[in-house]
Amino acid sequence: MKRILEIVPHFGFARSFLGYRMKLFAEDGYRMYLASSPDEELPSFAEENRFEYMATEMPRVPSLWKDTVAVIRICRYVRRENIECVVGHADKGKLLAVICGFLTGRKIVLFAHGTSFETRKGLPRKLFVALDRVESKFANRVICVSPFLKELRLNLGIDRPGKSYVPGKGSCCGIDVNGKFNPGNVSVDKQTELRKSLGLNETDFVIGFCGRIVRDKGIEELVEAFELFKKQVNGRVKLLVVGPWDIRDGIKSSVRDIMAGDDDIILCGDVDDNIELYYSIMSLFVLPTHRDGLGLSLLEAGAMEIPVLTTGFTGSRDTIIPGETGDCVTLDPQNVCAAMFSLYCSPERLAKYGKAGRKWVRDNFERTAVCRSIKECFDSMS
Fold this sequence. Notes:
With 382 residues, the protein is of the alpha/beta class. The protein has 15 helices and 13 strands. Strands 3-2-1-4-5-6-7 form a seven-stranded parallel sheet, with helices on both faces. Helix 9 links the parallel strand 8 (205-210) and strand 9. Helix 2 packs parallel to helix 3. The radius of gyration is 21 Å and the shape is globular. The mean pLDDT is 94.
């Protein structure tokens, strides 16, 4: 099995997570293809990472007409290119992979990146779980990005025993610990320039957050915790929020007002090319997430020697060793504040977590090792 088509509903997903792995597979003799929404960067990205592609609209919101057109176009592409395996990512990509794989008689691999049903209740939760079960039934393999996610799906009866697979310790792409996310590669001059542009002093204690600004990422609890935290410390403290606003799971207007009106909260927007530079000026990274398949930003921060604080009941638990590389906290503003204050008062523990965190990520989530583990899963299906 050497011809693989990966389906992603948005090109940005492929740019963030698939490029290196697809290039690695191509170098090992695979013929790689991508079906994605149109984007002006797609041709150059495909050439750089040695894959062929087709572009078709895949709207997040269900659209009978556009989704039908996508299915027809992908099926034709699969047959024309003699593709042997169809791989689905994200909710829409997985559904299209199952439909197109079934209609064309190809093998189907699904990547379980997260738990969109985890914070839902009642009928919506039951429907999402039921859809995952149906998709898993048709799939040949399901690659889970964390041990937590594999265990959760097994406990809910989504995947049958033996069908799911975790590459190494987890992740869908690993971390570039020797290149992009290596603190030794960060320019001091660029750090100084960034701090200046954001109005930060070198002595500021900077709490960082990176991710979509949505309720499920715990931004509401973090903002409320930060407001409590500021009242307990004497020095200058800042909250650096890196990421785009997402209206699909919007936060409360009261929290939005706090973020807009507090000069100590710095909103950076979406950052792609130099996110490692933003990590490098953080004193502590906090992700009090409600749900996450893994929590890739925690691994990125860890690789940059930034101590981390997160919740311990989602996939984020697999990104740290509590008490060694970071701390876990219950999802409550008072508890988040107490944990931040405890670390603020212990520079030695912060330094210890940072050093140990980089070693943990380097030893267990290095991108080549993770991608090789994923390749072993595909090789076993040949």
